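Technical annex, item 7. During the second reporting period the consortium partners agreed on a shared format for inverse folding records so that results from different sites could be compared directly. Each record opens with the tokenized structure and is followed by the designed sequence. A conforming record, contributed by the partner at site C, is shown below for reference.
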């Protein structure tokens, strides 16, 4: 019995050795005929034939989920050629008479990005991407191209809504929950930088609520170090799950390229503008007709104030709601409908958020007293009509 066992053990050892040598020298022999046990040994962990495991820190799923909803926007418009200076020269006109400049207008093109906000073809982008354009074409991530028309725009937040004139259901992006973003969160910027094609860059949220940048009237930007370059404007800023958290809008740059400081309009603002434009074709904001100024320590000292809270009324427009309510230059606005006013930016946002026709209580500091005034909110004029 012992002799039979030794023979069996030696036979198994020799067989395994032969299989190992043959698999090493002639692996193709075992491609289709290797026993299951041999296959399991060859594909054991640590063997070179094992399929690569997914990267643990990859954001491929987020990119795959959001990229189809990000589009390329191509615009075209006519630009009048500059008039030749000789045509305005009196001596030239004296000798050659009045001459018309019949040079044809130049055709200018531009590019940017956008985000499909609904499956029926509504696209969010920046106002500066489509401003002045008389032709708009949208290219989807899959290569399809469609004409688009302007539904409405809001220059004061630099947002615009387009309607893609195509057929069928489109890949719409998913909006993130309002105020879900935090400093330090990972974000992806998706767009068409420099026209090279759809590109994804990764970074983190560097800051929230950035304002006083001089970019737009209403500023509440997400700051990120994800690379944003010309052509990214209007593209998507998404979180690590692929949900839309912002619309890429601007960069801080001295060279024209990304320096790691980019700004995006938060999804809460984009959603509000989108809903108003869909409903009425425009964005309606409150207005009282005053010019406001920040209270500096020097101004506070000259007025005899202990702090710099509030907004200084530097001017009041004639026949405006503020003038009719009795607000005067030199007043310090410190409260609107029971909410404290900390600075001019906060005052502007508070008033803009009130509906035209609403009667609001304004609390102002005048000389050494506080005065309550009733102001009927007016409709904020379009930027071109504001004086």
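Designed sequence (site C submission):
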């Amino acid at each position: 019995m012992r002799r039979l066992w030794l023979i069996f053990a030696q036979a198994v050892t020799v067989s395994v050795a032969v299989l190992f040598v043959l698999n090493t020298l002639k692996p193709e022999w075992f491609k289709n005929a290797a026993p299951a046990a041999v296959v399991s040994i060859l594909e054991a962990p640590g063997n070179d034939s094992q399929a690569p495991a997914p990267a643990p820190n990859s954001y491929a799923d987020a990119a795959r989920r959001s990229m189809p909803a990000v589009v390329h926007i191509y615009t075209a418009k006519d630009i009048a050629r500059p008039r030749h200076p000789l045509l305005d020269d009196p001596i030239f006109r004296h000798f050659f008479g009045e001459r018309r400049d019949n040079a044809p207008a130049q055709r200018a093109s531009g590019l940017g990005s956008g985000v499909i906000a609904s499956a029926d073809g509504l696209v969010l982008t920046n106002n500066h991407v489509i401003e002045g354009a008389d032709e708009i074409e949208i290219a989807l991530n899959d290569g399809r191209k469609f004409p688009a028309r302007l539904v409405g725009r809001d220059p004061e937040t630099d947002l615009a809504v387009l309607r893609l004139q195509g057929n069928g259901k489109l890949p719409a992006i998913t909006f993130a929950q309002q105020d879900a973003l935090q400093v330090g969160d990972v974000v992806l910027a998706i767009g068409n930088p420099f026209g090279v094609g759809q590109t994804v860059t990764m970074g983190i949220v560097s800051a929230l609520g950035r304002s006083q940048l001089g970019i737009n009237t209403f500023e509440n930007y997400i700051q990120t170090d994800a690379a944003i370059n010309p052509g990214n404007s209007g593209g998507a800023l998404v979180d690590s799950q692929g949900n839309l958290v912002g619309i890429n809008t601007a960069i801080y740059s001295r060279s024209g390229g990304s320096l790691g400081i980019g700004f995006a309009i938060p999804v809460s603002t984009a959603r509000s503008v989108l809903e108003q434009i869909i409903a009425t074709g425009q964005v309606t904001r409150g207005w009282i007709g005053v010019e406001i100024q920040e209270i500096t320590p020097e101004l506070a000292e000259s007025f005899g104030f202990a702090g710099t809270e509030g907004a200084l009324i530097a001017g009041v427009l004639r026949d405006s709601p503020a003038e009719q309510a009795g607000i005067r230059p030199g007043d310090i606005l410190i409260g609107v409908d029971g909410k404290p006013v900390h600075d001019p930016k906060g005052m502007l946002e508070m008033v803009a958020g009130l509906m035209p026709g609403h009667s609001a209580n304004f609390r102002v500091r005048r000389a050494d007293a506080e005065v309550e005034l009733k102001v009927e909110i007016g409709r904020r004029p379009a930027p071109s009509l504001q004086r």
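The CA atoms of residues 336 and 362 lie 5 Å apart. The mean pLDDT is 82. All partners now use this format for quarterly exchanges.
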